[in-house]
Specification:
This protein is of the alpha/beta class and 350 residues long. The protein has 11 helices and 14 strands.
Length: 350
């Protein structure tokens, strides 16, 4: 029995798909890889399993963190997982689009998943979905918030504009537009169809290269993508997130971390980096504990695995819950004010 992580080799129907991949998918998998290193498990020791084929995996038994986006994009949805996979749900996002949740329920996965509770979710909307189906779920955050903080800042740092929506591009000040670097995108164009393992490796190496460029070159990143914003914030890089769809459930993972602006908001164009060391530590501690507890349950060991007492388990759970709740409801940002109002209205109606 071994440890595994997800990889991304899209098996979509080429008549519908434009052959572009999302680098953010790879970044989430690299974050899982980093967590494993804290347990003394090297990247080359991991079994890599394609996200969209977990229900078909037939190799040796593998413990597999389910961090990432899951949905029925282009009719490809891994509803369930094979008997050779022991899932650990961390940062799991079950998408509302393309009837992914309907398929999840139709196939009875909500019943199967109860054997692997509690289910750690990337966003509060996914938590709500599971709780409504009587699954013990909690907000675990996204592991892309756990990338190490960079040790030094670049002397002549760049302002990167990364995959801004058309409306967001319109509000960028001219002085920033004139000097910004536009060379990074999280849209990766595949060369061949069907995608093979070699190009899957190239896709992931592109993600590694982009993360390195952010770390070594960026003084500011302005983006409309959450998996650009979150790893950059974790690395200590100032970030501006602009998206006209800020009420999208996928974005609530950013609550209390960085401001979520619409193009019509008054935007602070000179933000400082944010200190999320407490959140980062809480997410890491929870991830290490969940992987360890699952590994021990199924008889997998590593040298660095720790014996958690019942009191320590409770302390880690409460710490993550308290930190994420506090960050989510801090005042001062439009999105946060709406959330506070909703919470107030909820209690008034009880």
């Amino acid at each position: 029995m071994r440890y595994g992580r997800l990889k991304e080799i899209y098996r979509y129907n080429c008549s519908e798909w434009d052959m572009y991949g999302n680098i953010g998918d790879c970044i989430q998998n690299l974050a899982v890889e980093n967590i494993y290193t804290l347990l003394g498990i090297k990247p080359d020791e991991l079994v890599q399993i394609n996200r969209d084929e977990i229900s078909q995996y037939s190799g040796e038994k593998v413990l597999l963190p389910m961090q990432g986006w899951f949905g029925n994009l282009y009719g490809v949805f891994p509803a369930g997982w094979s008997e050779s996979i022991i899932p650990v749900f961390l940062g799991y996002h079950l998408n509302t689009a393309s009837n992914g949740r309907e398929i999840f329920l139709q196939k009875g996965i909500d019943k199967l998943i109860k054997d692997y509770e509690p289910v750690g979710c990337r966003d509060y909307n996914t938590v709500k979905f599971f709780k409504n189906t009587d699954v013990n779920a909690y907000f675990s955050g996204c592991l892309t918030l756990t990338f190490p903080e960079r040790k030094t800042e670049p002397e002549n740092g760049k302002v990167f504009l990364v995959d801004l929506t058309p409306a967001a591009k319109e509000v960028i000040p001219e002085n920033i537009k004139m000097t910004a670097d536009y060379s990074i995108t999280h849209r990766y164009k595949f060369k061949n169809y069907p995608i093979n393992d070699e190009e899957g490796i190239e896709f992931e190496n592109c993600a590694r290269s982009i993360l390195k460029r952010y770390r070594d070159e960026a003084k500011l990143v302005i983006t409309s993508r959450i998996h650009c914003a979150m790893p950059c914030a974790a690395m200590g890089i100032p970030v501006i997130f602009i998206n006209e769809d800020i009420d999208n459930p996928r974005f609530d993972v950013l609550d209390g971390i960085i401001p979520c602006y619409t193009p019509g908001d008054k935007i602070n164009w000179e933000p400082l980096s944010v200190d999320i060391s407490d959140l980062k530590s809480a997410i890491i501690s929870n991830a290490l504990m969940r992987i360890t507890l699952t590994a021990r349950k199924y008889g997998i060991q590593t040298e660095k695995m720790y014996n958690y007492s019942a009191g320590e388990i409770k302390r880690i759970e409460n710490n993550l819950k308290n930190i994420t709740f506090r960050k989510r409801f801090i005042p001062g940002m439009k999105r946060k004010k709406r959330l506070i109002f909703k919470l107030f209205r909820f209690y008034i109606n009880q």
